[in-house]
Design goal:
This protein is of the alpha+beta class. 40% of the residues lie in helices and 25% in strands.
Length: 256
């Protein structure tokens, strides 16, 4: 048995980016024990409250955080069943964007404050992970197989949250499967060749349903978009018009 101080120290090392192997070697604690502590190192609450499981189901208590987390989940998230009956929500966040990792973790904590959140290092990314029996309740899009091979439709209560907080939903999708880049071109002005740069946003996802959720929400906030096909597949949504890029910059911005 390990005391709570030892457990917190091990998880703090994991949270700072050390791998399970590294933490195990530094502390002398087995990887299995450390992995289990990611689920819960101490009981924050003995209740298993879930707004969707109540007699009269209701939306989550932090709708803005939920809208952002929903975008992250649809882009780079998954839910898997744990052997002990719980479910693990995992959001893949690239190492290149430490700010995204922090925002993702904060959103998970706000949506499910009763459950702990940990970061598990993988090759080139961090899996922001939280265990709860109720993740499938909060993300009913969970199911077998990859998202682009099955129907992805928002429940009415989810759509109401997206309608109320469209920019948070868009930010989540961009932070998962999108980017802000700078294109450039050259023009001859007064006999002199000049270089001009202009920003644009891209969102890439194989799921027709998820791309439509993205473009429908863009249209609602006044952002113009177009589809750029990759070969014969329309995987890329482009936002390039100056006014629309300005809107995206004001509410989304580049990853960080």
């Amino acid at each position: 048995m390990y005391d709570i101080v030892t457990r917190k120290r091990a998880l703090s090392l994991l949270d700072r980016g050390h791998s399970l192997n590294s933490v195990s070697k530094q502390t002398g604690i087995s990887r299995a024990a450390i992995r289990q502590w990611c689920v819960r190192i101490e009981p924050i609450s003995r209740t298993t409250q879930c707004p969707r499981c109540e007699h009269v189901p209701r939306p989550p208590d932090a709708p803005e955080a939920y809208a952002y987390l929903l975008g992250l989940y649809l882009g780079d998230g998954c839910i898997s069943r744990h052997p002990r009956g719980s479910h693990a929500l995992r959001i893949a966040c690239a190492d290149a964007w430490p700010g995204l990792i922090t925002e993702c973790r904060e959103a998970v904590s706000r949506v499910r404050p009763e459950n702990s959140v940990c970061r598990v290092r993988k090759q080139g990314c961090v899996m922001v992970t939280s265990f709860s029996r109720h993740w499938p309740c909060l993300f009913p899009q969970h199911g077998p197989g990859r998202k682009h091979t099955r129907s992805i439709v928002l429940e009415p209560w989810q759509q109401a949250i997206v309608d109320a907080h469209p920019w948070q939903f868009i930010r989540g999708l961009i932070h998962s499967d999108g980017c802000r880049i700078t294109n450039w071109t050259t023009r001859t002005v007064g006999g002199e060749r000049k270089r001009y740069e202009y920003p644009r946003y891209f969102f890439t996802n194989k799921s027709d349903d998820i791309r439509k959720l993205f473009t429908d929400t863009l249209a609602k906030v006044g952002v113009e978009w177009s589809i750029l096909a990759r070969g014969s597949s329309p995987f890329n949504v482009s936002v390039a018009r100056r006014a629309s890029v300005a809107l995206m910059d004001a509410h989304v911005g580049p990853k960080y």
